[in-house]
Amino acid sequence: MDFNRNYITRFIWGISGILLLAFVLFGWLFYVGKTARKPIAIAKEAFCGVPNLPEELQQGKALFYQNCLACHKLDMDGIGPGLRNADHAVLQQWLLVDPTHKDQAEYGRLFHFKTFQNKLAEEDIQEIQAYLNHKNE
């Protein structure tokens, strides 16, 4: 009987010690986890050597992405030609002015006119033009 009682006492003290140690360890980990967390700072400056796009060009970029990017890229040809540094008169002619020629070279102009005549205003085209002509320095 004495052996059984001694065994049970040691077992209870052992379990109590393990539980106390686990409680202290998890409490410490919880405390360290809460105090070590700091909010992540989002960089306002570009981090890969390319400056951020100025605020006044953001609308032109958004319009370009919504209306042009499916066919045109900035610096390389896609379905249509690359548009970086495109002339404003060319953009205006293709997007707003009714084309009069029907030959193969004019097909693109006809497509753009019919697609964008009621969708883009002159101001929108100017914003797209400003974005296309922007140079990252």
Q: How would you describe this protein?
A:
With 137 residues, the chain is mainly α. It has 5 helices and no strands. It has helices at residues 2-36, 58-67, 88-95, 107-116, 122-133. Helix 2 crosses helix 5. The longest helix has 35 residues, at 2-36. The radius of gyration is 34 Å and the shape is rod-shaped. The termini are far apart. Mean pLDDT is 73; it is low at 99-104.
Quick structural summary:
Helices cover 55% and strands 0% of the residues. It is mainly alpha-helical and 137 residues long.
Helices and strands, with pairings:
Layout: H1 2-36, H2 58-67, H3 88-95, H4 107-116, H5 122-133
Supply the key terms.
137 residues, mainly alpha, 5 helices
What's the average pLDDT? 73
How does the major sheet shape up? none
Low-confidence spans: 99-104
Using DSSP, what is the number of strands? 0
- Our Rg estimate from Cα atoms comes to 34 Å
Number of helices: 5
Distance between the termini: 89 Å
Q: Strand-and-helix sequence, N→C? A: HHHHH
What fraction of the residues are assigned to beta strands by DSSP? under 5%
